[in-house]
Write a structure and sequence with these properties.
Blueprint lengths: L12 H23 L6 H20 L7 H23 L1 H8 L2
Helix pairs in contact: 1-2, 2-3
Length: 102
């Protein structure tokens, strides 16, 4: 089974749309932080925004869809680490602080 090699896209319009979405998410984040200050939903929302931004960058700018599946999975795991850590620290902050003290 011969499959033609995948080539990176040379079109700029999709990249401009993704870049605009990243800018909107970045500008929206501080407003959501002020609006939801102290809310229990804020860490989940911030984690979702971080994951979405990382996924957009990985898929459209790094073009991880064109890589070997192992590399794609490593990148997906790397993108998932920060949001998961943020939510875990929001839920179990005192325990993590106790573990981190000398």
């Amino acid at each position: 089974m011969n499959t033609p090699p995948c080539t990176p896209s040379t079109r700029l319009l999709p990249l401009a749309g993704v870049w605009l979405m990243l800018v909107v998410l970045t500008l929206l984040s501080p407003g959501l932080g002020d609006w939801l200050h102290g809310s229990t939903a804020l860490p989940w929302l911030v984690a979702a925004i971080i994951w979405l931004k990382g996924w957009l960058i990985c898929r459209h700018f790094i073009e991880s869809g064109l890589t070997h599946p192992f590399i794609r999975r490593v990148l997906d795991g790397f993108i998932l680490v920060t949001p998961v850590a943020l939510v875990l620290i929001a839920l179990f902050g005192p325990q993590f602080a106790r573990w981190a003290t000398l």
